[in-house]
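Researcher: Checking consistency across runs. Here is Glycosyltransferase again:
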Amino acid sequence: MADMLSVIIPTYNPNETRLAKTLAGLQKQSLPLQGWELIIVDNNSSYLINADLGWHPNYKIVKETAQGLTYARLKGFKEAQGQVLILVDDDNILQEDYLQNALNTFQEQPKLGAIGGKSLPVFEGNPPAWLPEFYSSLALRDLGDEVLAASWDHKYPACAPIGAGIAIRKAALNTYIKKIETQKNVITDRKGDSLSSGGDNDIVLEILKAGWHVAYLPNLVLHHIIPAQRMEAGYMARLINNSSNSWVRLLQSHGINPWPQIAGWTVLPRKVKAWFTYMAWKNNVNYIRWQGACGTFDGLAKQ
C-alpha cells in the first residue's frame, strides 16, 4: 500500500446536491481509480446518506456515532489503507489533478507531513462586499503562486494547510491519534450544528511538533461551495465568535497562546467596552469584528 491514497469525507447531514458535486469532482481525478480508495464517514447523521458511488471500485461508507468532526476524522484515519490521506469536506470540489499532485509531492519530499493549497469560492448567491475580510473563517484562501513551507517554530505558521483538502502522510499522524485516544479534553471541532473549530489546526500542530514539515502548494486547488446562508451577517458573527474562542483555547492547549488569561468577572465589562470600541452598531463588519473580540474574551477567561 506504499503508493495507495485514501480520500476521507467526514460528513454530518450532508446536502445531497453539494455532496454530488464533491463526488463528481473526485470521479474526474487524473489519478487512476485503482490507486486510491474513497471513505465517507457518516458522523451520526439523522438520515441515510444518498450518494452515487457505483463508479468507484473501492469505496465504503462507515459510521462514527461519537459526535464531532474530530472523531469522524479519526474514524477515517483508522479505516484508511493508504499511506497518504486527503480530507475532503462534503462541499469541496477538487481540481482534476489534486490527488496526483498530492501523491507526487509526498513521494518526492519525505520530510513533509501535511500539505494544502488554494481553496477558492463558489458562491451560491451574491456575496456581500464585506465578505472577503472573513474568507479565512470560511476555509477560503489563496496565498499566491509560490511554494511556502514551515517547520516547528513554537507558533502557528501562516502557510499551514487548512482542513479543506488537507493531505497528510499517515505516518505523521501517530502522535495526534494517540493524543485523541488518551486525552479527556479533546478539541472536537464541528459538533452537530455547532460552529466550533480548531481540529485541523490541532492536527497540524501535532504534526509539526513531531518533527515533520508542512507546506502550501499552489498546484493543489479546490473549489469550496459557500451557501447563501453562510454569507449572512448573523451566521458570520456566530462563526467568528465561535472560531475566535476555539482558536484561543487551541493555542493554550499547545502552550503557544500569546495573550494572557483574564479573570472571568472581567469578560462582561470587556465586551461592553468593545461594543463601543468597535462601534458594533454601525454596520455588519463592525458587529462581526465585535463578536470575534467577544469570542476571544471567552477563550481567555480563566476556567
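Researcher: Does this match what you'd expect to see?
Model: One thing to look at in this run: DSSP finds eight helices and nine strands in the chain.
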